[in-house]
Design brief:
Strand content of chain A: under 5%
Distance between the termini of chain B: 33 Å
Radius of gyration of chain A: 20 Å
Largest interface: A-B, 19 and 26 residues
Strand order of the largest sheet of chain B: 7-8-9-3-10-11
Pfam family, one (chain B): ABC_tran
Keywords (chain B): ATP-binding, Nucleotide-binding, Transport
CATH superfamily of chain A: MetI-like
Low-confidence stretches of chain B: none
Low-confidence stretches of chain A: none
Structural class of chain A: mainly alpha
GO molecular function (chain B): ATP binding; ATP hydrolysis activity
Order of helices and strands of chain B: EEEHEEEEHHHEHEHEEH
Order of helices and strands of chain A: HHHHHHHHHH
Protein name (chain B): ATP-binding cassette domain-containing protein
Oligomer: heterodimer
Number of strands of chain A: 0
CATH architecture of chain A: Orthogonal Bundle
InterPro entries (chain B): AAA+_ATPase, ABC_SmlMolc_Importer, ABC_transporter-like_ATP-bd, ABC_transporter-like_CS, P-loop_NTPase
Largest sheet of chain A: none
CATH class of chain A: Mainly Alpha
């Protein structure tokens, strides 16, 4: 039977990962479209910066988030002084950390998906009087949707497993910011192997399920 | 002059240079751009539609100025009202035949107006594709696809129609039949028609003025009658 201690981290993980993915996906899709469409100076640099969270160590990302959003951070100090709010050591902080880590997965998939859309279809829409906004919503986005959804699923899986950045920003407070991956760490450190086993099994099953769904989405219809 | 084109554009990238330098003006309402592949015919067509912006020159159709580099005029494609039938037809694969034909009449959000829906139905009937209305383009034949592409281009009453190699996507036995069909449809249109082709058989069926292309330049211009006679001589 499921350990009662396994339930809060599971629910928190699902909530954090879903919100983080949603938070990352919308800007990622629009920036991907922008980077694919317009050739502006410094595009490769912007592309590199947006992909950076995929390759940087999560602790480095956590540090960046603290520098920007911490109580003495560039934006964080303003939020703390003006509104008295801070994301440090809150579950919202875990959402921010997970969304930064998940962002490039959506961005890269969406960019590849937009590049895969036949340019002639967008040109056809142009000659039919469609505005660029209409072309995005009625042609490019629907045709790229499969690739975008696959990217969103990968991002969700990545957000569920987030550890390093979350630990730096949100800490490891049981019942408050302790997600599954943090709970596994704590259970192992405390020698609670039974709980660790359960948590590991849970997160593995969830990730396998997500990957199977991604494979189903990517596979073209027969 | 119904159509007058005087455009230049240079491509330098990829180690290979290409200079497009096309000038012609016609007073009839049918023009064939005829020449081998890679001679700049399709580039001219794209410039007419506004999908490509030339470096210099001007483009005028039926008194409307679409492009004039000196005056700084460039009308974007969505405001030109020029129908374009692409070589591969470029039908939207995620939409049904009816949605494809309705595309140019559909608002960004919401449903078609009743008048627009009527217009779409009218086009589907006119082109004999009403029975395919709910099919996706992948499920219909090449000849049917061409009719959908034409219906889509003509649904929002364009001011001119451009056809890029309209038969090259079809099997050779089918071409003759589709040519006859298309001739019937085009005969009812009173807008400027511009067709790109490298197939002499297309030139003979289409009629009008023939602008011959070679290596990015316009070589000469003839009426279709003269062209046909000269080709018979060669044959």
């Amino acid at each position: 039977m499921l350990d009662a201690n396994a339930l809060p981290p599971l629910l928190l993980t699902l909530r954090v990962a879903t919100l983080a993915t949603a938070l990352a996906a919308v800007p990622a899709v629009f920036l991907a479209r922008l980077a694919q469409m317009r050739d502006f100076p410094g595009r490769d640099l912007v592309d590199a910066v947006l992909t950076l969270p995929m390759v940087l160590p999560p602790t480095v990302l956590g540090y960046y988030i603290i520098v920007v959003l911490g109580r003495r951070g560039i934006i964080g100090s303003y939020l703390w002084d003006t509104f008295g709010v801070s994301i440090m050591f809150t579950w919202e902080g875990a959402v921010v950390a997970a969304s930064v880590v998940a962002f490039p997965l959506v961005y890269r998939s969406a960019r590849a998906a937009f590049e895969g859309v036949d340019e002639n279809l967008e040109n056809a829409a142009r000659t039919l009087g469609a505005s660029e906004l209409a072309i995005f919503f009625r042609v490019s986005f629907p045709l790229a949707l499969r690739g975008i959804v696959a990217g969103v699923m990968l991002a969700l899986a990545r957000a569920m497993g987030e550890f390093g950045a979350t630990l730096m920003v949100a800490g490891n407070l049981p019942g408050k910011t302790q997600t599954l991956s943090l709970a596994v760490y704590s259970a192992t450190q405390a020698g609670n192997d039974a709980l660790a086993n359960e948590l590991v099994l849970l997160i593995s099953l969830a990730c396998v399920a997500l990957l199977v769904i991604v494979a189903k989405i990517i596979k073209p219809k027969a | 002059m119904r159509i007058s084109v005087d455009i230049q554009k240079s491509y330098c990238c990829g180690g290979r240079e290409f200079h497009l330098n096309a000038q012609f003006a016609v007073s009839g309402n049918r023009v064939v751009l005829f020449g081998p592949s890679g001679s700049g015919k399709t580039l001219t067509l794209r410039a007419l539609a506004g999908l490509l912006r030339p470096d210099t020159g001007s483009i005028r159709v039926d008194g409307r100025e679409f492009f004039d580099q000196e005056a700084g005029v460039f009308v974007p494609p969505r405001d030109r009202r020029i129908g374009y039938v692409f070589q591969d037809y470029a039908l939207f694969p995620h939409l049904t035949v009816r949605q494809n034909v309705a595309f140019g009449l559909s608002p960004l959000w919401g449903r078609l107006s009743p008048e627009a829906a009527n217009r779409v139905q009218e086009m589907l009937n006119l082109f004999g594709i009403a029975n395919l209305a709910d099919q996706r383009p992948a499920r219909i034949s090449g000849g049917q696809r061409q009719r959908v592409a034409l219906a889509r281009a003509l649904a929002n009453e364009p001011a001119a129609l451009l056809l890029d190699e309209p038969f090259s996507a079809l099997d050779i036995p089918l071409r003759q039949k589709v040519r006859a069909e298309l001739a019937g449809i085009l005969a009812r249109l009173d807008i400027p028609l511009v067709m790109v082709t490298h197939d002499p058989a297309d030139v003979a069926f289409f009629g009008g003025d023939v602008v011959r292309y070679g290596e990015g330049r316009v070589l000469d211009m003839h009426s279709a009658e003269v062209m046909r006679r000269s080709m018979v001589k060669v044959a």
